[in-house]
Amino acid sequence: MTYQEFQDTVTEMLAEIPEIYKKGLQGVHVLPQAHPEPDLPGVFRLGEYMDPGPEAFLGSNPGLGRHIALYYGSFLAIARNSPQFDWEAQIWETLTHELRHHVESLAGDGSLIEEDRQRTAEFRRRLGKLGKR
């Protein structure tokens, strides 16, 4: 999938999501770069929800608000190593995951943040066990 096709797919999928779930969201951004996970070689972050809260957003004005970033380069890196990679399914899963972060943030609920932390900790444990073989 090209970068333009990726952008178009995200735009089409975003249009399918009811506005109530996007309320207060300032943008969904498709970024060309990959986002490797620190300390996890070969692992890439596909997307992230950015909520500056009262602090500055990415080191700038806190008035910029809530955003979702999807990293095309990360999708591409994973797809290159997985012949069965389903671009559309993974885009949808990532987009709705980040939107869930947004909705939960508005509600003051950190459930998905905790699920992500637990999933990452389990992933790190499994990698550690594989490295000891």
Describe this structure in words.
- This protein is an alpha+beta fold and 133 residues long.
- Helix content is 49%, strand content 13%.
- It is globular.
- It has 4 helices and 3 strands.
- The model is unreliable at 56-60 (pLDDT under 50).
- The longest helix has 21 residues, at 87-107.
Structure characteristics:
single chain, 133 residues, alpha+beta, Zincin-like, 3-stranded mixed sheet, globular
Helix content: 40-55%
What is the CATH top level name?
A: Alpha Beta
Tally of structural domains: 1
Order of helices and strands: HEEEHHH
* Averaged pLDDT: 87
Ends: how far apart? 36 Å
Strand content: 5-15%
Form type: globular
Radius of gyration: 16 Å
What is the CATH T-level topology? Zincin-like
Total beta-strand segments = 3
Class from helix and strand fractions:
alpha+beta
Q: Report the biggest beta sheet as strand number plus sense, adding barrel if it closes.
A: 3 strands, mixed
Supply the number of helical segments. Answer: 4
Segments where pLDDT lies below 50 for 5+ residues?
A: 56-60
- Strand order in the sheet with the most strands: 1-3-2
CATH architecture: 2-Layer Sandwich
